[in-house]
Amino acid sequence: xxxxxxxxxxxxxxxxxxxxxxxxxxxxxxxxxxxxxxxxxxxxxxxxxxxxxxxxxxxxxxxxxxxxxxxxxxxxxxxxxxxxxxxxxxxxxxxxxxxxxxxxxxxxxxxxxxxxxxxxxxxxxxxxxxxxxxxxxxxxxxxxxxxxxxxxxxxxxxxxxxxxxxxxxxxxxxxxxxxxxxxxxxxxxxxxxx
Length: 194
What we know:
Layout: E1 8-12, E2 18-22, E3 25-28, H1 30-35, H2 40-45, H3 50-55, H4 65-74, H5 89-99, E4 105-106, H6 107-117, H7 129-137, E5 144-146, H8 166-174, H9 185-193
Antiparallel strand pairs: 1-2, 3-4, 3-5
Helix pairs in contact: 5-6, 6-7
């Protein structure tokens, strides 16, 4: 799996300054499949390798998409026929997400996987992060959804504790036992008052 903890997108903010923001992450969303009336089990199971599709005794439309995703990640994505060089780019993006167990991925991570997979093919493909990003943003038919951006964390700075006022300390010291009182008599005065 491609690790990229700091995937950022640079853009010009109009003032000549370049600002960086985190690239959005995407995954296959079962709720989106329901809203666009797509059968997610069929969509996912049809991306399995040829052998898995031939060995399937059950009807794929009733299967669990998570089981198909696990099978694709563990077995099918390792097969030569999983992502052929002439695979349409949007379908290839969908297959990359499946092969990574539907973990959230950004355009840069997907681009790196596609570039590595198709590095030595006779069909040159444009798989830059910008192209992948545009395709991801327009992949509703594949049930690919953008994860909501996390809320910015607000740092709460604790208020400094106020320093003790030196005046009350001086008052306590002034209430101390006078020097002319004999030892042991101050306790007897307190007992008499009680």
